[in-house]
TrEMBL record:
InterPro entries for this protein: RecT_fam, ssDNA_annealing_RecT
Top-level taxon of origin: Bacteria
Pfam family of the protein (one): RecT
Name assigned to this protein: Recombination protein RecT
Organism the protein comes from: Polymorphospora lycopeni
Disordered: annotated span: 253-304
């Protein structure tokens, strides 16, 4: 089977045979086996130069290291990976994207939600060929910061590198275009907290927010600024797809389907906070980091 980059991908039958041989001749039907068997479909979906074997390795690593991901419905995991394939992003690597398990109380099952990382959005923005620089930063109380929304639209940020910078007061993202122009977007810390309260889908049954907005607030704030700034940037098709598919659930596994149209966005991700089994320290600054996963609560409100 020929792929989009001219290489030859194994057929499903050949991949299944290889998987069976790896398992001592016994046919397996685990989510890991299904990921391996989808290699050909992933390759068909991927941008030129990307390799499905790398995506499969990343996915299997995420499966081993993210608690409850192996319990998720197979199609939701594979759908998230198909979107990663189409966008050319690496799940669980480089801050590109994460597969976040959550408990779907309506379906009474675990599902995987695809969360596009801050670095993933930057990667896709650069691929448009129209962005020369895109970065997000945090402003602290001790910093010199001034914004002028006038004819020129200017922003000055001079961080206090030698004193106590204090608490965060604002966040912003700046995009510089290859044409020489630029655009920026600023949100105060209070506005960011209101945005979180209005838009965070990961909540317990009691309505308490959990997950990345709690464990990696700064990273999510930077990502939010980039998302808002994207409205004023020249977008590539891939960036538009990523913005539409972010924090959604996909169960359509076709490599030719628009990921925006095949992704649904759950209103609430019901569960409780579960510490990751591995990943960067919780105090890693400026990085969306390893997502906190969730598992359902039992009848007494405790985690199962």
């Amino acid at each position: 089977m020929a792929t989009s980059n001219g290489t030859t991908a194994p057929t499903n039958a050949a991949q299944a045979l290889a998987t069976r041989r790896e398992n001592g001749g016994v046919a397996q039907n685990t989510i890991a086996d299904r990921i391996r068997s989808m290699s050909a479909e992933f390759q068909l979906a991927m941008p030129r130069g990307a390799e499905a074997t790398q995506l499969v390795r990343d996915a299997l690593t995420a499966l081993r290291m993210t608690r409850n991901l192996s319990k998720c419905e197979d199609t939701s995991v594979l759908g998230a990976l198909m979107t990663c394939a189409q966008l050319g992003l690496r799940p669980g690597v480089l801050g590109h994207a994460w597969l976040l398990p959550f408990w779907d109380r309506k379906a009474n099952s675990h599902k995987a939600q695809l969360v596009i990382g801050y670095q993933g959005l930057i990667e896709l923005a650069h691929r448009s060929g129209k962005i020369s620089s895109l970065i997000a930063r945090t402003v602290y109380e001790g910093d010199e910061f001034d914004v002028d929304y006038g004819i020129a639209d200017t922003l000055v940020h001079k961080p206090d590198l030698f004193g106590d910078r204090g608490n965060p007061v604002a966040y912003y993202a700046i995009a510089k275009f290859t044409t020489g122009g630029y655009a920026f977007y600023v949100m105060s810390h209070k506005d960011m907290e209101r945005y979180r309260d209005q838009n965070a889908t990961a909540r317990t049954r009691e309505g308490k927010v959990f997950g990345p907005w709690v464990d990696h607030f700064e990273g999510m704030a930077h990502k939010t600024c980039v998302r808002q700034l994207a409205k004023y940037m020249p977008k590539s098709t891939e960036l538009a797809y990523a913005l539409a598919a972010d924090e959604g659930v996909r169960v359509d596994l076709s490599p030719n389907v628009d990921p925006a149209e095949s992704t649904e966005h759950p209103d609430v991700l019901d569960g409780e906070v579960v510490a990751p089994t591995s990943g960067p320290p919780a105090n890693t600054a400026g990085d969306e980091g390893w997502p906190t996963t969730a598992k359902p609560a039992d009848a007494n409100g405790g985690a199962q």
